[in-house]
Specification:
heterodimer, A: 274 residues, alpha/beta, Rossmann fold, six-stranded mixed sheet, 12 strands, B: alpha/beta, 21 strands, disordered N terminus
């Protein structure tokens, strides 16, 4: 169970015993996590531990099937909603590998996405001219060249440019809960600073961030309130920011021992996994 | 004139073969024979040259075989089961729109083509063709002030027979191919455009074709002549109601551009495509060809093909004049069980002729979509250039896309470029857009219109947005 950091703040995301599989292969095997307003959580863990699956299940990727458990977003059953609806009500996924969409103008894409969110919030939709003013102002958050707006979505972007484009989208959509899936991977140190700076600028007492990362270097720039270690589709251990430092020092070897102990328990009391 | 007497004789003679007794329907009996060809000609009171033209075509057609080289599959067409002429009750074209049957006006209004004075599009002249007959042409007087002739081809035969005789069949000869021969024998109506020397046509011209009868073939004939240094932009739209039988549509379009003339021809084709199991829909076998007869002339085809059960269509340019330019921009979308075999022919005859081909094929459902194009550079086409780009997009995993580019080059001092690509709308691309709040259907349509942008940019402003919407509508429910 994750530690309660801001007990008085409203719960934004509540994940209970979440099980999910892809192509009948169980990946998530009972994730529990509560995220409150104003919190920054980091999820760490080895490759294949289920971190990216968790982010995709939360965003509603059709390839993943939820087999048990629940996710509530501000009291609403998130799993009932289409991916587009999840975005409109304030959930954001920053992709590890943002896809290229040839022929679709980045500016138009950002405008349509922003308006979908604005419409849901009851704000006036922005026309092309009004939107250009908004987007130019937000570009500064990620120090992006306006020339990126005229290109196709992510097409021909470098790895760093794609990630900055993700943070630009986050800046425009003003999510309530942002999940950033290895946003730091493949970034040089300057780009990492820019991306981390963007995330810090955008966090507020009313929203929350879930960072999925392998590296302490991101957490040097964005200080998490809680760190969770995932292994074999579960959160194995939770702690404060010092847990990340400990992982940096001693690695994940302890995880195997812990998993073996849990498996022993499971044999005596089988988990309900499809 | 002796021909008049002959025509008169034929009318009375053919009554016993031809007309369905209920005169109100104004259809002739189904089936094709020399008598039917004569009957059509006599009903339209055509001059002798046109009857000869039809009969020659009919006799050639009898000797020809239906082409089978296209990547299309359909049961054999029984040409004796088709009605070759159908006209709404009001057969004679009225001098004023007030006299046109309100039901017809209402039909076109429903189709988004208002014809009445108050509602018509402000800068587009429209010729409305219902089954085999043109029922109204707007803005004729205004166009006439500029010397522009825009009317149905039947009227052109009456009022300007010398122009029709001089140009008809000179771009697409009667024996050009099976369907062109058939059309030449039985064509009923279509549009005629003549732009005199030096005139820039002051508005868009457009013809709207509507097939209404379930058992009728539509064989329209369009002829556009742009004299020296004239310019015209022309657009055709097509729809047909839903029937569970197939209707044959075999049109011929001929364009002639003299020195320094420019013709832009755009099509938004939305014939009924059949249902999701492939029952019903139009068989669209169309021959479209433009001849850049003069030096520095230019012909540009833009087509958005979304309808028809079967599309067999290769709008082409014969680049005869020196420095003439041919262009072909195409979006062909097939869904469900639709089949399309479409492309172009660019025949470079004159020196320094240039051509551009941009083809975008989108296949969804269980459909099959083929691009077939020929670039031919003749021995005299010194310095000729061609650029071709053929892109295919697949939606789902049951659709097929093929590209058949043919290149024939007899002039070493020429250049031909060909680029081709195939892509698929992936689940990850869709998820990416969805996860930004963009609904599934809108995400698909964004990607499709992005894919088609190069072609849509070529459409007249008024129709580019329409085309975009049409594609979105056609794809509704196709992805999943």
């Amino acid at each position: 169970m994750s530690a309660v950091i801001r007990p008085d703040a409203p719960v934004l995301l509540e994940i209970r015993d979440l099980h999910a599989s892809v192509e009948n292969q169980p990946i998530l095997k009972g994730v529990n996590l509560t995220i409150r307003a104003g919190e920054i959580h980091a999820v760490m863990g080895r490759n294949g531990s289920g971190k990216s699956t968790l982010s995709k299940v939360l965003a509603g990727h059709p390839a993943y099937t939820v087999t048990a458990g629940s996710v509530f977003y501000r009291g609403e059953n998130l799993l009932d909603l289409d991916p587009e609806q999840r975005s409109r009500i304030g959930l954001f996924l920053g992709f590890q590998y943002p896809v290229e969409i040839p022929g679709v103008s980045n500016l138009e894409f950002l405008r349509v996405a922003t308006n979908a969110r604005r419409k849901e919030r009851g704000d006036e939709e922005l026309d092309t001219f009004a939107f250009e003013d908004v987007v130019r102002e937000r570009l500064s958050v990620v120090q992006m060249d306006p020339a990126f707006l005229d290109r196709s979505v992510n097409e021909g972007f470098s790895g760093g440019e794609k990630k900055r484009n993700e943070i630009l989208q986050m800046a425009l959509l003003e999510p309530v809960v942002a999940i950033l899936d290895e946003t730091d991977s493949g970034l040089d140190i300057d780009a990492l600073r820019i991306v981390a700076g963007g995330v810090n600028q955008l966090s507020s007492p009313d929203n929350a961030t879930l960072l999925i990362t392998h590296y302490q270097r991101l957490l040097d720039l964005i200080t998490p309130d809680a760190v969770h270690v995932m292994a074999a589709g579960r959160i194995l251990r939770s702690g404060g920011k010092e847990l990340a430092l400990e992982l940096e020092r001693s690695g994940y070897d302890w995880v195997d021992a812990e998993l073996a102990r849990l498996d022993g328990e499971a044999e005596r009391q089988p988990l309900e996994v499809a | 004139m002796s021909s008049t007497a002959t025509v008169g004789d034929l009318v009375s003679q053919n009554y016993k073969y031809g007309f369905v007794t209920d005169i109100a329907t104004d259809k002739i009996a189904k089936g094709l024979s020399e008598e039917v060809v004569r009957l059509i000609s006599s009903m339209k009171q055509e001059p002798a040259f046109l009857l000869d033209f039809r009969l020659r075509a009919y006799r050639q057609w009898l000797q020809m075989e239906e082409p089978d080289w296209a990547t299309l599959g359909y049961p054999p067409i029984d040409y004796q089961e088709i009605i070759y002429y159908a006209a709404p009750k009001q057969q004679q074209k009225k001098s004023s729109l007030d006299e046109v049957d309100p039901k017809l006006l209402e039909t076109f209004e429903k189709l988004g083509i208002p014809l009445s004075e108050q509602k018509r599009l402000s800068n587009v002249a429209v010729d409305a063709v219902f089954d085999s007959v043109s029922i109204a042409t707007t803005f004729r007087e205004q166009l006439a002030e500029h010397g522009v002739i825009f009317c149905s081809i039947s009227e052109a035969v009456k009022d300007h027979p010398e122009l029709v005789e001089r140009y008809l069949g000179t771009v697409v000869p009667t024996n050009d191919n099976y369907f062109a021969a058939l059309n030449s024998a039985v064509f009923s109506d279509g549009s005629f455009v003549f732009i005199p020397k030096g005139v820039e046509c002051p508005m868009e011209l457009s013809t709207y074709f509507r097939i209404n009868s379930g058992d009728t073939g539509q064989f329209e004939r369009t002829l556009i002549i742009a004299e020296e240094a004239s310019t015209v932009s022309y657009l055709e739209g097509c729809t047909a109601p839903m029937f569970d039988t197939n209707q044959l549509h075999a049109a011929v379009v001929e364009l002639v551009a003299l020195d320094d003339a420019s013709i832009k021809y755009s099509t938004v084709q939305n014939w009924y495509a059949g249902d999701e199991n492939g029952v019903g829909g139009i068989y669209n076998f169309v021959t479209k060809r433009g001849q850049c007869r003069g030096d520095r002339s230019r012909i540009s085809w833009t087509q958005v093909e979304t309808g028809s059960a079967i599309t067999w269509k290769y709008p082409s340019c014969v680049l005869q004049g020196a420095d003439s330019v041919g262009e072909f921009y195409s979006v062909a979308l097939t869904n469900n069980r639709q089949q399309a075999d479409t492309g172009t022919k660019m025949v470079h005859v004159g020196p320094r002729t240039r051509s551009t081909i941009v083809s975008k094929g989108i296949s969804a459902g269980h459909s099959a979509n083929s691009y077939r194009g020929l670039v031919q550079i003749g021995p005299k086409a010194v310095g000729a250039r061609n650029y071709s780009q053929c892109d295919s997009m697949l939606i789902g995993d049951q659709a097929a896309a093929n590209t058949y580019p043919y290149i024939r080059c007899q002039q070493p001092q020429s250049s031909i470029e060909h680029e081709a690509s195939t892509c698929r709308i992936s689940e990850d691309q869709l998820f990416y857009l969805q996860s930004r709040g963009i609904g599934f259907e809108e995400a698909v349509s964004m990607m499709v219109s992005g894919f088609c942008r190069d072609v849509f940019n070529q459409l007249p402003m008024e129709f580019a947005a329409e085309a975009d919407k049409l594609l979105a509508l056609k794809l509704e429910g196709s992805v999943g």
